[in-house]
Structures are given as structure tokens and as C-alpha cells.
Amino acid sequence: MSAETPTAASTVRLTVAQAVVRFLSCQFTERDGQRQQFFGGVLGIFGHGNVAGVGQALLEAELEADAGDGWKPAAQVPYITGRNEQAMVHTAVGYARQKDRLQTMAVTASIGPGSSNMLTGAALATINRIPVLLLPSDVFATRVASPVLQELEQDYGYDVSVNDAFRPLSRFFDRVWRPEQLPAALLGAMRVLTDPAQTGAATISLPQDVQAEAFDWPVELFRERTWRIVRPAPEKALVEEAAALVRAAKAPMVVAGGGVTYSGADDALRAFVEATGIPVGQSQAGKGTLPYDHPLCLGAIGSTGTTAANEIAAEADLVIGIGTRYSDFTTASRTAFQNPDVRFVNINVAGLDSVKHAGLPVLADAREALEALGAALEGFSTPDAYRERAARLNREWDAVVDRYYNSGLGERDGVLAQAEVLGAVDEVAEARDVVVCAAGSLPGDLHCMWRTRDRKGYHVEYGYSCMGYEIPGGIGVRMAAPDRDVFITVGDGSYLMMPTELVTAVQERVKVIVVLLQNHGFASIGALSESRGSQRYGTKYRYRDEQGHLAGDKLPVDLAANAESLGVRVLRVTTRAELVAALRVAKASEESTVVHVETDLYSEAPDGGGWWDVPVSEVSHLASTQTARAEYEVHKARQRPLL
Ligand SMILES: Cc1ncc(C[n+]2csc(CCOP(=O)(O)OP(=O)(O)O)c2C)c(N)n1
Ligand SMILES: [Mg+2]
Predict the structure, then answer these.
(1) Whether the predicted model's global pTM rises above the 0.90 cut
(2) Does the beta carbon of 600 sit less than 6 angstroms from any atom of ligand 1?
(3) Which residues of 90-122 are buried (b: 16+ CB within 10 A; e: fewer)?
(4) Ligand 1 pocket member 121 (CB < 6 A)
(5) Does residue 68 surpass a pLDDT of 70?
(6) Mutation to probe ligand 1, out of 516, 524, 537 (largest number of atoms < 8 A from CB)
(7) pLDDT of 257 higher than 80
């Protein structure tokens, strides 16, 4: 026997699915000397595509059946049954984001619709740069019984399946046609999931027959592996160039994005801005990088920004973007920065983001780069007047928030304004609690108004702004942070998209507080429609009227009863005082609660001066559209190429 020949002891005979499950339980990440289990759970729904493969493997792992080789898992990876595959990916994303991308979950789905249901989740994870491992099941590799139930069948290629749709949505994709391919697929997925610049959805497609196939795996595949989450250091010359730009600037500002938080660079950011006196505007993912009442915190920037951030942005001659993608909401569709000489310094781990707006690309980890730039700027500060102006703008905006939080409109009109609901949540929530949202008019309101006090206290999914993320995403947040209360704020439209995981919250005894704002339609798209000349067409949940339009009476839906039927406790409230009382009850409880509150479809958010590019019809017979088009062209003229 040659040295290379595997001995009986150096291989272990397992199915492909058993090997996958075993592999998941021995992956760890490490950063700054802290080590943690990478997969905090496997979420799944079984169908014929995975029940006897991955399902059997999970059962065996849960029962700790002795495989006869003395192997013990390095960590327990619990299996959690979900209700909707898309929602399960949202839960994994919520979990991973709350864990600063150091931990995540895997999701298993059956072939066909079970798998394709995860496509939206894959896009959401990749766009938000959040690691999730997707394990869709696939058609038979052997094709003995093709076409199998739910097989796509394309006449131009028999190896195409619905799972090929994951390719453009994933940062890594592989299909394991043969067991021999599995180790490379698993290691490739781990490489991408743990790379801060590459991370997103990693997809390993598992044909249903291959899942059940046995193979002699080298035992090394199942050794504990610790993946270092790297902190790439910035190039010295670039730091010096960036420092020179800051020293020459008269009106510098920072735009802080999610990358600051994921890098754990919040303290470094605070030290940097306190030393240099450079104020900070925050993207949705960057809210929390400084507490709302820090004198250099300008709060939300861009389309849904504050007057504080947008006023400074309009004049800024140097923008230091840190861990930001510069989405259209952040740049107010490229109208936020109006100084003709504005320049950008982009601190980012991702090459894609580092070169945006023709910025100086400081390709590096946020914390490392902030510390290096801070050291290079030793002794530098903006004038006191600039610091004082930022602090004044911050206080002025907070006074606006105060007025909206306590407008008294609910008492006057008999139905609460949305901002009053946020005011009530603000009153009851503790500093470390987390507010969760994703779509509708709430994200904009939260972005400009929410008083974020803790670095992980604000969780709005705004890369994909996916209706239906709220409840499953919030459940993932709570799983990641059981010591924080999670306030899920959700509109009626988003609730109707995906209330399903309330059942999962009940099953797993995961406590969340859902604040369900019932305004009988789309306040957000309704307001947008009106401002763009489309008269709120099709944005209300109404019966058809006598003319055949969807503008009749309100529909008799009872979302409170719907939530109750899923097994959660529901509190129905009308007034502000009732709302505050209900939130306190929910907070004191150990169970999940849905607080159902009627709100005004027409309630307004404060205007922070930001614009958003949503094109208006160039020709129309409607006067409303013609007026909106004329207004649109005025804004359009302020858009800058930033080259
Ligand atoms: C899955 C999905 N479909 C469509 C949209 C477009 N969209 C954005 S907000 C919105 C309406 C949200 O309604 P609701 O949750 O009731 O919130 P409200 O606008 O009333 O605040 C729609 C349809 C989206 N973001 N996500
Ligand atoms: Mg609504």
C-alpha cells in the first residue's frame, strides 16, 4: 500500500447530504481574536427533493446517531422548520446582519418551486452584501426518470434547471452533479461567505438523487475549520493622498454605510470624527454608526434624509464615503452633492464601491482605514464654527422629529399619524432594542426620524426594500440577539405579503413585537404616485366602485384576526395612550405580540429636502401628469454625473 492510498481510517462513508450537514457543524469564523460557530442553524421546508436526502441527514444529526466512526460535531446546528422559502432566506439575512456577518444560517429547499421561492431572498442577500448559504434541491443527475415532478425541461439543453436562475443572484454558485465535486463546492461557498468584499448568497444546488448517494469522504473534510474575516489594510500612499484632500477641504463630510457597522468600526468612526470635526450623514444601513444625538451626527442623508445632512451635503467639497454603496436613496439620485468642486474618497473593501463617483479608492477595511487616516490627520480639525453648525443642525432636526412624534393628529382626526406611532415606539423601546423594517413609507420615516441609540438598534433592509422581509427578517434579528427586544414595524401591504413566519416565531418561542400599521393600502406608493401625476391610481385596497374603479369602500379585512389565527397574541389599539400601553405589555411579555393600529393613509413625513428619481411620462393627456413632468425636469437638471 503506497502512502497516498487512503486507509480505512482516513475516509468515512456518508451520503452527500450527510456530508453537507456534517461540514456545516465544523465551520467557525474568527476576527479580532473572537471565534464563533459560523452556522447558527439550518432553516428548511421538506419536499420530495430534500426530505430523504438533506432531511434524513438533519434527522440523523439531531438524533446524534452514531455513525460508527466516533465523530462528534464541533457545534450543534439546530434545524428549524419555516413556512415559506423566501421568508427563510430573510430570516437567515436578518440573523447574519445582526451578527455583523460573522455568523449566518443555511437554508434547504425542495426542488422546483421550493427552490425558486428562494430567488428573491438570494437577490436580497447579495444586494445587501449579507452571507447566506442556500441549498436548493435539483433534478436527478442520472435523469433515469426524467422529467421528474417540477422539472423545467428546456428543449435546447437538458442540464438546465430552474436553479440556474440562482447564478446571476448569487456570489457563488455550484451544482454537485457528482459526490466528488462536493468538497470544492463547500470550500468555495465558505470562501465567498467569509470574504467581506465578496459576500452575499452562496448557492450549492443539490440534485435529489446525489443527496442520497454514498461516498468515501476523506476525514479531513470534516475537521474544524476557522475562517478569518480579514481586515485588509489600506495602501499607505492612498492614505496620505486622502489626508491631503481632507486638509485642503473647507467643507468635508463623511457618508457612513453598512460597511462601517459590519467592520465593527463604529468606535473608530467616532474617534475619527471627534478628532477631526467632520460631520456624518448616514445611509439606511449606516444608521447607528453614531447615536442620533451625537453633535457630529447629521442623521439620514439623501432622498429620505434630514435637512441637517442634506444641507451639509449640498455644500460639501469632500465626501468621505465609508462602507457605502452610494445607492440612489443615499445620493438623492445624484442631486445631494451640489458643490461644483466636490471630490470623493471611498473607503471600502469592495472594489466595485471604491471607485464610484470617481473617488480616491481606498480599498480597505473600514476600521483599519479610519485608524490610518486618523493618524495621518493628527492635529487637523475643521473650524469650531463648522462643528457648531453641525451640532445646531442636529438639534434643529430633532425638534422637527419631536413635533412629528407628538403632533396630536391622532386625537384630532381619530386615527393616528404614522409618525405618532413611531413616537410611541420610541417612548417604550430601550436603547439596545432593535427596530426592523424594509418597505413602504416606514423606511423613509424611520431613516429620517428614528432616534437610534445603539450601533445595532436599527435594522432596515433597504438594499432590496422587499415587502415581506419585515417579519421573517425580524425573527432572524431576535434569534441573533435574544437579549434585545425587536420591534418589527410593518405596513398592511407588507404584512399581507408574508405573515407566514409568525407561525415559526410561535413554534420556536422567538419573541418579537410586531407593530402592524393598517392604512388600507400603499401610503408610500400612493404619495409617490400623486407627486408624479398618477393620482394614487391602484394604491388603495378598495372594492370596485360603480364606475369600475378600485376606489370604493374599504375592504373588510381584519389583519388582527389573521395574526391571531396564526397563534400570536394580538392587541388592537386606536389611541396613542392605548398604543403605548400595549407596547409596554408586549415588552414585558415573553411571547410574541402583534399590536394592530389603524393609521392615516395620508400622513406626511417631514421634508428633508431630498429628491428621488422616478421618471414621469414625457407625454400625457392628464393635466396631473403634465404638471408632474414639468416639475420632474426641474429636478432632473440638478442631477450630476459625478465623474
Ligand atoms: C415585494 C415587493 N413588491 C412591491 C414593492 C413596491 N412597493 C414598495 S412600497 C409598497 C407598498 C407598501 O405598502 P404597505 O406595507 O402597506 O406600506 P405603506 O406604503 O402603506 O406605508 C410597494 C407595493 C416592493 N418594495 N416589494
Ligand atoms: Mg399600508
Answers:
(1) yes
(2) no
(3) bbbbbbbbbbbbbbbbbbbbbbbebbbbbbbbb
(4) no
(5) no
(6) 524
(7) yes
